[in-house]
Design brief:
Number of domains: 1
Structural class: alpha+beta
Largest sheet: 5 strands, antiparallel
Number of strands: 9
Helix content: 40-55%
CATH topology: Butyryl-CoA Dehydrogenase, subunit A, domain 3
Strand content: 5-15%
CATH class: Mainly Alpha
Strand order of the largest sheet: 5-4-3-2-8
Radius of gyration: 23 Å
CATH architecture: Up-down Bundle
Distance between the termini: 23 Å
Order of helices and strands: EHEEEEHEEHHEHHE
Shape: elongated
């Protein structure tokens, strides 16, 4: 018989697992990893509301994508265009970024699988006499290692020609030059830290769902068990 067991700790672990997976996925797909040096505004960059010139634009560069400003030939306005600069894996600007594009998706794939499974831990707490929480925690720890490898290798690619075109001639491995780090890089780091927190917290979720109070509720014949 299936017993639906919901505790504060198990629910918090499930929510964190889902949030971490989505955060890492969004960060990887974003082009806001590097914020390039400011491009001086031209005479065409005029704010229609104030009549003054707009602030200098700073293009952004991601692992495989970029955002830049394009000018229209017939209209005196400029639009921001975002999209992949690499149409294939081999066109990614740096070998280090190619490695990052392998390790990060591997970690994200594991996190998404764990996030999917975590939803069903309310009904199924063990498979083949092994706690799903412990197995998921182990997988989250492995995913965290993949994420760390990707994040360590990523700055090593700052010396590639693509990064130099955005960050200036002083950019090199682990040196930003005229660039600054974007929100996607910080999100990936924060998600990695939360991944290890989830891996540790999975043990608490397992303890909460197998506590004496839960066993007492099961013995009383209850199918829906909610404990604070």
């Amino acid at each position: 018989m299936c017993h639906v067991i919901v505790t504060c700790r198990s629910m918090l672990w499930t929510l964190l697992s889902i949030v971490v997976a989505f955060a890492e996925l969004i960060a990887f797909m974003s082009a806001d990893w590097l914020i390039g040096k400011a491009k001086p505004s031209s005479s065409e960059d005029v704010d229609d509301r104030t009549g003054g010139s707009q602030e200098p634009y700073r293009p952004t560069l991601g692992i495989y994508g970029r955002c830049t400003r394009i000018s229209h030939m017939q209209l005196s306005r400029r639009d921001t265009l975002c999209g992949p600069y690499a149409e294939s894996f081999n066109e990614i600007a740096s070998g280090f970024w190619q490695a990052t594009a392998i390790f990060l998706p591997m970690g994200i794939l594991i996190l998404c699988a764990v996030a999917f499974v975590s939803v069903f831990t309310m009904c199924v707490q063990s498979v083949m006499k092994k706690s799903i929480f412990n197995v998921c925690g182990l997988l989250q720890g492995i995913a965290g290692l993949f994420l760390i490898l990707g994040l360590i290798l990523y700055p090593a690619g700052w010396g590639c020609q693509k990064a130099i075109s955005y960050c200036g001639p002083y950019a090199s491995a682990y040196k930003l030059g005229d660039c600054s780090l974007g929100w996607a890089f910080y999100t990936a780091i924060g998600g990695t830290i939360l991944t290890f927190i989830c891996a540790v917290f999975s043990a608490q979720a397992e303890i909460a769902t197998s506590s004496d109070k839960v066993q007492e509720e099961i013995e009383e014949g209850k199918n829906l068990i909610c404990l604070l």
